[in-house]
Write a sequence for this structure.
């Protein structure tokens, strides 16, 4: 809860106190609403089970790049983890999501700020990363 206090040496009368309490409550509700909107927007672009960007987030990221600089300086890659369904059947969904989370974090660390990983569903992933000549290894 938000609290307000009068300046030193001043005390609020009842009307002022009532107005301050109404203001505190309004600020509290507006901050809560802003936080809920932020959480909702994040849930639209994030895979809830893994915490990795989802298909919608991947498309949004690509559109942002296109609007800023164009895609000519970027590479994209789509890949899938073959036969991961066998692991899922053996160990269950919770373990699979833990593995995907760890896998995703490792790839995101590798990409840094220059790329984006997306979990497209199932065992399908995609990456968009900035092309740099220094990355070429001969």
């Amino acid at each position: 809860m938000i609290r307000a206090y009068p300046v030193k040496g001043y005390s609020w009368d009842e009307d002022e106190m009532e107005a301050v309490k109404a203001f505190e409550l309004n600020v509290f509700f507006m901050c809560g609403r802003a936080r809920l909107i932020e959480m909702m927007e994040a849930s639209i672009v994030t895979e809830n089970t893994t915490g990795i960007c989802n298909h919608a987030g991947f498309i949004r990221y690509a559109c942002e790049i296109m609007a800023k600089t164009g895609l000519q300086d970027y590479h994209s890659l789509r890949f899938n983890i073959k036969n991961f369904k066998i692991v899922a059947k053996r160990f269950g969904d919770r373990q699979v999501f833990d593995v995907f989370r760890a896998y995703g974090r490792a790839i995101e660390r590798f990409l840094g700020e220059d790329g984006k990983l997306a979990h497209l569903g199932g065992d399908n992933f995609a990456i968009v990363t900035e092309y740099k000549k220094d990355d070429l290894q001969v």
About this structure: The chain has a mean pLDDT of 86.
